[in-house]
């Protein structure tokens, strides 16, 4: 009987951890997407302006190169911000567990 109760408690704890992991990953995706949009805008404006105004850029940066510049910045921003958001959420959760376990002890 005690083994069954322990298994139920551990399954409940596992479900709770899984739900928290899903929530943290969703927060990371949303924050990363926002950062990618901002990076795309911040990169597209000077890239497109330089292609129109600078002779070197007009001669050497075709549409593929322009898209590559913009998408690289957007991709980098997405992964950096999403990773930092997930890690910050996990860190915040681990500190909450430490403080609650110290209060109970």
Summed up:
The chain is mostly helical and 105 residues long. It is 95% helix and 0% strand. This is Early nodulin 93 ENOD93 protein.
Characterise this structure:
The chain is mainly alpha-helical and 105 residues long. 95% of the residues lie in helices and 0% in strands. The chain contains three helices and no strands. The two termini are 27 Å apart.
Could you give the topology of this structure?
Elements: H1 2-53, H2 55-60, H3 63-104
Overview features:
mainly alpha; 3 helices; 105 residues; single chain; 95% helix
Beta-strand content bin: under 5%
Overall structural class, as computed from helix and strand content, comes to mainly alpha
Categorize the overall geometry: rod-shaped
The description of the largest β-sheet is:
none
Oligomer: single chain
How far the N terminus sits from the C terminus, by CA atoms, comes to: 27 Å
């Amino acid at each position: 009987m005690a083994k069954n109760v322990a298994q139920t408690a551990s399954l409940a704890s596992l479900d709770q951890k899984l739900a928290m992991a899903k929530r943290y990953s969703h927060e990371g995706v949303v924050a990363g997407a926002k950062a990618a949009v901002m990076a795309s805008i911040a990169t597209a404006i000077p890239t497109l302006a330089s292609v129109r105004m600078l002779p070197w850029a007009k001669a050497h940066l075709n549409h593929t190169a322009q898209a590559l510049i913009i998408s690289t910045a957007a991709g980098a921003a997405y992964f950096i911000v999403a990773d930092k958001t997930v890690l910050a959420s996990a860190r915040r959760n681990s500190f909450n567990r430490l403080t609650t376990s110290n209060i109970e002890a």
